[in-house]
Design brief:
12% helix, eight-stranded antiparallel sheet, 164 residues, 2 helices, alpha+beta, single chain, 8 strands, Cyclophilin
């Protein structure tokens, strides 16, 4: 059975499962969850009809909103292109590095089919999917946000291993 995790937010809970065929991303995410890395981090970028993004440790500090989206571990995760950016999938964010290696902690949930993220030029690793709570992801994508798509009211998360 694939690894499952619970993302708790003020808007409700989202349950995700990680794909076994993207082991580098799966294992990195599991490690961060076990370290409680994501606890108190926010969804710092939300765009209706596109995605919700979180995982930046700088987002714990609202006085640094201008830096949200720039933080995280310095190590990158090599790309593992196996799945498409379909509605409800979980994918790794990344900067513009030519190897298309992923961020060490930032991720997003697609709230729409985003096929353009699967092109050879884009190339984002999808490593899981939402199995419950997609309505919560949709609700988060619609909150009021500033000019940088950062929610006006912080949407914090806590991620734990889901026990069957």
């Amino acid at each position: 059975m694939p690894d499952q995790f619970l993302i708790e937010t003020p808007h409700g809970n989202i349950t995700i499962e990680l794909f076994d065929d993207t082991p580098l991303h799966r294992d990195n995410f599991k490690k961060l969850v076990h370290e409680k890395y994501y606890d108190g981090i926010t969804f710092h970028r939300v765009i209706p009809g596109f995605m919700i993004q979180g995982g930046d440790p700088l987002s714990r500090d609202q006085s640094k909103r201008h830096l949200h989206g720039t933080g995280g571990p310095t190590e990158r995760i090599p790309a593992e292109f196996k799945h498409k950016n379909k509605r409800g999938t979980l994918a790794a964010a990344r900067d513009g590095n030519p190897a298309k290696a992923s961020s060490g902690s930032q991720f997003y949930i697609n709230v729409a089919d985003n096929d353009f993220l699967d092109s050879a030029q884009a190339g984002y690793t999808v490593f899981g999917r939402v199995i419950d709570g997609m309505d919560v992801a949709d609700k988060i994508s619609l909150v009021k946000r500033d000019s940088r798509d950062n929610p006006i009211e912080p949407i914090t998360m806590k991620i734990t291993v889901k026990v069957a």
